Amino acid sequence: MPKTPRQTTRRADALTKMKVVHAAIEILDAGGEAALTFRTLATRLATGSGALYWHVADRNTLLTDATADVLARTLSDLPKVDEPAPAIRAVALAVFDAIDAHPWVGSHLSQEPWHRAIGEIFERIGEQLEPLGVAADAEFDCASALTSYILGTASQNAINATRHPGGVDRETFLESVAERWIQDNPGRRPFIRRVAAQLRDHEDRRQFLAGIDLILSGACLR
Amino acid sequence: MPKTPRQTTRRADALTKMKVVHAAIEILDAGGEAALTFRTLATRLATGSGALYWHVADRNTLLTDATADVLARTLSDLPKVDEPAPAIRAVALAVFDAIDAHPWVGSHLSQEPWHRAIGEIFERIGEQLEPLGVAADAEFDCASALTSYILGTASQNAINATRHPGGVDRETFLESVAERWIQDNPGRRPFIRRVAAQLRDHEDRRQFLAGIDLILSGACLR
DNA sequence: ACCTGAACACCGTTCAAGT
DNA sequence: ACCTGAACACCGTTCAAGT
User: Least CB-CB distance to B214: which of A113, A142, A155?
Assistant: First the structure.
C-alpha cells in the first residue's frame, strides 16, 4: 500500500483577513481581551502564528478591525427611525447593547477615540440634532457630549456586568461596592448611603437612557 | 589594608509601599502604562524585582494604588465651593485635569469602575444635587450620568491629547481624524463635514464643561 | 522581616525555510 | 503568494537563598 498523504500539513481552505477577524471575535467574546493571543488564535485556525501576520498587521490592528466589524453590523442592522429623539435613543441603545455583549469593544474604543465606528456614531447622533431643535451653535458640543456619554457609560456598564471573581452575582457585587465606598469615609458619605439600595437594584439600560434624556432635554433649552 | 565593604549590596533606606507607588507614578507619567514594568521599577528603586512583591500584591493593584494616590491628592486639594453648580464644575474640572496630566489614571478607572476614587467623585457630585434643586427621585440617575460623563470624557480627551505617532500636533491630528471619518462614507457625512472645523479647533476643557452644563440644566427641569 | 536575582511560564513579533 | 514553526526579546510572578 502506498503512502496516502501528500500534503497533510497544509491548510485546505485559504485563510483570509475576515476569517482571522471572526475567529478573534469568537475568542474575545468567550474569554475577554486577555484570551486573545496569537497562539490560541493560530491553534483555532489550525495554522502557525506567523501565518496570521500575513493577514493582519498586529494585535492592536486586529482588535481595531474586530471592533469595527461588530459595530458595523450593529449600526447597519438599525431600523430607520423618523423622530429625532427616538432615533438618538435607538443608536445609543444599540451601541450600549453591543458593548454589553462584547465588553472588549468598549475597552478598545476607550483606547482609540478616533476609531471609525466613533465617527459613525458621532454622525448618526449629530445629524438628528438640528431636527430635534438644538441651536446650531450647540450642536457640536451636544453631539460630543452624547457620544462621550454613550461610550463611557456603556464601557463601564459592560465591565460591571462581567462575571466577577468569586462568582458573586451582580446585586451582591454592587452592594459590596456601595458598602466599600461608604467605609472609605464612614459617616461622611450621606449621598451614597441614601442611594445604596438604588445602586444595588437599578437597571443599567434604564439608567443609561435616563442620562441620554438628561443631556437631550438640557440641549433643547438653549 | 582590610577589605572595607561589609554589606554593600543591601539597600540603605528601607523600601515602603509608598515609595514603590510613587516611583511607579513617575514612570507612568513619563512613559505611559506600557512603561511600567517590574524590571524598570526595580532598577529605578535599586532593588530586585522580587522585592517589590513584598510591598505590592501585583501590577494591577499597584496601578490601582497609584490611581488612588493621584486622585486622593487631587480631590483633597480642592477648595470648598458653596454654590452647588460651581461645586460640581470644580470637581469635574479637577478630575478632568488630573486625568489630562496622568492619562493612565483614566484608562485604569475605565477598567475598574468600582475604584474607591469613583466613590469619592460620586459622593461629591451627588451631595450637591439636592441643594441644586434636582428632584429627589432623579438624584441617583443624575449623579450616575455626571460621573460616567466625567470619567468617559476625561479619559478619551487624555488619550487624544497624548503625543501621537509621527509627532503631529493636536490640530493636525484632529483634522486628519475628521477627514478619515468623512472618507469612511464620502458624501454621507453632512454633520461631520459641518463641524470639522470645530472638531479641529475646539478647546477640550470648554467643551467638557459644556457637557456638564447640558446634564445639569437637563436635571433641573424634572 | 526584608531583599536578591535566577527561573518559570508566558507573551507579540520576526523570519528563514518550505510549498 | 501564502504558510510553518522555531527563535528572539520581552513580560509578570514565584521562590530558594541570602542578610
Answer: A142
Take residue B49 and report the three cell numbers written for it: 524585582
Q: What is the mean pLDDT of each run of 10 residues along chain B (222 residues)?
A: 36 85 98 97 96 98 98 96 97 98 98 98 98 96 98 96 79 95 96 98 97 95 71
Taking only the tens place, the pLDDT of each residue in B166-190 is 678 889 999 999 999 999 999 999 9
Number of Cβ within a 10 Å radius of residue A58: 11
Q: Give A123-159 as a DSSP string.
A: HHHHTTHHHHT--GGGHHHHHHHHHHHHHHHHHHHHH
Confidence of residue A12 (pLDDT cuts 50, 70, 90): low
C chain positions with any atom within 7 Å of a protein CB: 2-7, 10-16, 19
The shortest C-alpha distance from A2 to chain B (Å) reads 56
Q: Does residue A108 come out as left (phi exceeding 0), alpha (psi in the -120 to 50 range) or beta? A: alpha
In sequence order, which residues have a C-beta less than 8 Å from that of residue B112 and are 6 or more positions away? A159, B64, B67
pTM: 0.93
Mean pLDDT, range A148-154, rounded to an integer:
98
Name the residue closest to C5, CA to C1'.
B48
Q: Which of B112, B207, B11, B202 is nearest to A147 (CA)?
A: B207
B37 touches strand D (CB under 7 A): yes
A173, A211, A219: residue with CB nearest B141 = A211
The DSSP code sequence of B35-55 is G--HHHHHHHTTS-HHHHHHH
